[in-house]
Amino acid sequence: MIDWNIQSRSAACQACNRPFADRQPFHTLLFDQKSAYQRLDVCEPCWTAQFSQGASDRKGFVSHWQSEFAAPPPAPPEPIQKETAETLLRKLVALNDPNYAAAGYVLAVMLERKRVFKAKGQIQPDNRRHLIYEHARTGEVFTVPDPELRLSQLDAVQRDVARLLEHGLNPPLAAVPPPGAATDIGTKPTPAAPEDSGPSSPTTPAPDAPPSLQPPAG
Ligand SMILES: [Zn+2]
Fold it and tell me: Fewest Cβ atoms nearer than 10 Å: which of 4, 98, 124, 209?
């Protein structure tokens, strides 16, 4: 099954191995490899010679777009600060825990609204929608499964995201069960999540407040 995925932009054409120059146009292709999407970045001549016909005459890539290579930016000078939507999403992808699927999806939507992410379309390999985003600055490709949130889950998910942004990944969030999740009787009980210790502080909106996903009234 295909899940969370980040793939960096290549610094060279992956067909002819010539390094990309700054501002050089290149093509990104995604191949469905069943367990993951394989990204391939190729230069314009290789695209024309080897791949531009691929979609029609062989089972090739499932998604393709063109962009311009940008020389990697210098590392940001400031030290790691508070969790942002982006740092938090990267941690969630690394965890690859389905319990965080809803929170990760909301974070991806936030990053698209902030123009950190550019939407590159969607694919639906096994009746499950995946959104494809490209990081505007680094060129990384994120594939994000759509958790198919129900309206009744939105409040809880947005509270989880706000808490994660405020406090990071510890303590673990109370996961929103996926739709139709079966209760597994007979397996060993999961340890109860520890309650927040200390007096609970009033909820202050984080600078990275999650977007409202409620439909507009009226
Ligand atoms: Zn090439």
Answer: 124
Domain membership of residue 138 as a residue range: 5-72+81-145
In a domain, 166, yes or no: no
Cα–ligand 1 centroid distance for 67 (angstroms): 14
pLDDT in tens, the chain (218 residues): 457 778 899 999 999 999 999 999 999 998 887 777 889 999 999 999 888 876 544 457 888 999 999 887 776 665 555 689 999 999 998 888 888 999 999 999 999 999 999 999 998 877 889 999 999 999 999 999 899 989 898 899 999 999 898 888 865 545 555 555 444 444 444 455 454 444 544 444 455 656 656 555 55
Is the complex ipTM higher than 0.90?
yes
What domain count does the chain have? Answer: 1
CA 22 to ligand 1 center in whole angstroms: 15
Ligand 1 mean position to 90 CA, how many Å?
A: 30
Helix (H) or strand (E) holding 198: none
